[in-house]
């Protein structure tokens, strides 16, 4: 998939440069000037025809040789039901709702008449014996195990959304009235903790900016010359630019020259389809666990009486 993206970008760059040169040539050669009359008959040229045919052939190769075989192979081989982790995902303006079957592995029944702010999917929880009694529903917080096939059942409450995990090359439109499956497997070992460790960077304090680091937290305790902690591990630079500038100034005054920072959220789910005026806010935290950690999370959140609804 990355190879196809690279090929398309190079191809589009060549087209952009070529057509840009031709455009400048036309502006210069056919500009208005004394003694020059406009010609309204189309220019007949063999070179342009050859270029257009070549572009068409190349685009056909991209579709028939690269894209369509990959897509056909992917869509024809969903993970077996006994091996995959199944999650229902519901998009709505402007949040993602994630529905897990709980410890019993059985999804509970839903009723649209029961939908409330605290029960966004209308899950029936009035009967402790109902399969949905231990179901888990999270809002804008997606937990998944690594190394295990994920099978997501996507639908929407209102308008068309697009479920996208950019770093995993996962994307699928979410359409109201339809349930569309998508499946993928996160690389074994790509837990949230490991990703944060791998994405840790060092920034010079004198060149650091709040805007650049507003989504980062400190990876270590940053101490001044007197040994006092100025920026503790896990802390950020503050919610506003003014707060960030003040914190950076305090770090510089106390002798801290470098910041060791890591992303607060190494992975996230976004909506890739313009779905309304707050589309940009439609993001979900993606937390990856090893299988033991995921099982522990399910155990913690499963409730024998009612599901757990969390706001991130």
Describe the biggest sheet?
A: 6 strands, mixed
Question: How would you classify the quaternary structure?
Answer: single chain
Mean pLDDT: 87
Structural class: alpha+beta
Give start-end ranges of low-pLDDT stretches.
Answer: 304-309
Distance between the termini: 31 Å
Helix content: 25-40%
Protein described:
By secondary structure, the protein is an alpha+beta fold. It has three domains: 2-34 and 41-75; 85-190 and 267-311, Sandwich (Immunoglobulin-like), CATH 2.60.40; 200-263, Alpha-Beta Complex (Molybdopterin biosynthesis moea protein, domain 2), CATH 3.90.105.10. Helix content is 30%, strand content 25%. The protein has helices at 2-29, 46-75, 192-198, 210-213, 241-253, 291-301; strands at residues 85-92, 95-100, 136-139, 141-145, 150-156, 161-165, 170-174, 180-184, 201-204, 216-218, 222-223, 229-231, 258-263, 268-271, 283-289, 308-311. The protein has a six-stranded mixed beta sheet, with no helix packed on it. A five-stranded mixed beta sheet has the order 4-15-14-6-7. It has a three-stranded antiparallel beta sheet with strand order 9-13-10, with no helix packed on it. The two termini are 31 Å apart. Mean pLDDT is 87; it is low at 304-309.
